[in-house]
Amino acid sequence: MLKVKVDTKNYTVTMRGHADFAENGKDIVCAGASTLLYTLANTLEEFRTAMTESPLFTISGEGEKQRVTYRCKPNEEYEPNVQLVFMTVTTGFNLLAEKYPDNIKLTVV
Q: pTM of the predicted model, to two decimals?
């Protein structure tokens, strides 16, 4: 199961594991979740100069042990923009979790 945790206070998204909908490379649930996370990271790259420190994007492990994390710390002026991006991506993760409850678990804190 793919586990996604969105921390809206600390602007962090962590994904662990594999959705097991299909084999690696053909799994539409993992592809959808990866697309959402990369969309978040690339959209917020536009606000890089508005961050109080450089965003962190890390990938470690493989398969079931893979962990992908994105974290940023926006300055006060751009925080509403970052909140909107996080809210939009969280909606996407929620839609995936509702459609594929056996493959993805979403936790929002």
A: 0.91
